[in-house]
Amino acid sequence: MSEQTRWVTAHGAGHAQWYIERFRRMAAEGVDLDGEARLLDAMLARRSRVLDAGCGPGRVGAGLAARGHVVVGVDADRELIEAAKADHPGPLWLVADLAELDLAAQGEAEPFDAAVCAGNVMPYLAPDTEATALARITAHLRDDGLFVVGFGLDRGYPLADFDTQTAAAGLALEHRFATWDLRPWRDDAPFAVTVLRRPRPTA
């Protein structure tokens, strides 16, 4: 596994449990936690196969599974994966480092119709692994598969770097929004939601 993620170095021990309890509390209070899942669902055919990359305790993947999709969620934090298994049975939840992602080795060789990175996954990766992680996620998509990524632009991961790295991974940018509920993109937006696609090979 690659060096420690920024998730660990920024927050230290105990943060994962705080994060788990935070979302459990919000769910119990009836907070709407399904915005990302609704957006993905609108883009996908029924029973699409979706990779929740950096799934945390399973919130987005569970929302997609509830809408009938086949979900595999992966995260490098074992504590978050255990919470996903406990709170959201149904999807397959796996411990995996996105920079070393090889789901075929874990029995999941079938490519995905879509992948999603929500919840500031990209800025929390280990330093200098972003390009590799994007390439590994892309490798798990079928041709014409979607990849939807959202993260805050105040987290130290420049959007220009992201665009360069996704292009290098072979992804084509289709849309960009300022929020998960599709507010129009603007250059001073504090958040970016980007819709990318792995193109079909040309003849």
Please write out the topology.
Elements lengths: L5 H6 L3 H14 L6 H9 L5 E5 L5 H8 L3 E6 L2 H10 L4 E4 L16 E6 L12 H10 L1 E12 L6 H10 L3 E6 L13 E7 L6
Parallel strand pairs: 1-2, 1-4, 2-3, 4-5
Antiparallel strand pairs: 5-7, 6-7
In short:
This protein has 203 residues and is α/β, with parallel strands linked by helices. It is 33% helix and 23% strand.
Polypeptide structure, described:
The protein is an alpha/beta fold and 203 residues long. Strand 1, helix 4 and strand 2 (70-75) form a beta-alpha-beta unit. It has a 7-stranded mixed sheet, with helices on both faces. Helix 3 (35-43) packs across helix 4 (59-66) and helix 6 packs across helix 7 (159-168). The chain has helices at residues 6-11, 15-28, 35-43, 59-66, 78-87, 130-139, 159-168; strands at 49-53, 70-75, 92-95, 112-117, 141-152, 172-177, 191-197. The protein has one domain (6-28, 35-174): 3-Layer(aba) Sandwich (Rossmann fold), CATH 3.40.50. The chain is globular.
